[in-house]
Amino acid sequence: MQSEKNFSVGYRLEDYPRPSVTADVVAFMVRSQARENYKKNSETRLSILLIKRGGHPFRGCWALPGGFLQPGETLEECALREATEETSVTPASLMPVGVFSDPGRDPRGWVISGAYASIISEESVRQVGGDDASDAQWFDVTFERGGAGECRLELCCGEIRICAALKEKATRFGRTDYTIRDSGGLAFDHAAIIAAALTVLREGAKDFDTIFDFLPEKFTLSALQKVQETIMNITILPASFRRKIGEYVVETDEFTQGDGHRPARLYRKKTDSGS
Amino acid sequence: MQSEKNFSVGYRLEDYPRPSVTADVVAFMVRSQARENYKKNSETRLSILLIKRGGHPFRGCWALPGGFLQPGETLEECALREATEETSVTPASLMPVGVFSDPGRDPRGWVISGAYASIISEESVRQVGGDDASDAQWFDVTFERGGAGECRLELCCGEIRICAALKEKATRFGRTDYTIRDSGGLAFDHAAIIAAALTVLREGAKDFDTIFDFLPEKFTLSALQKVQETIMNITILPASFRRKIGEYVVETDEFTQGDGHRPARLYRKKTDSGS
DNA sequence: CAAATAGTGTCTCTAAGACAATATCAC
DNA sequence: GTGATATTGTCTTAGAGACACTATTTG
Question: Which end of chain B has a smaller Cβ tally under 10 Å, C or N?
Answer without folding.
Answer: C
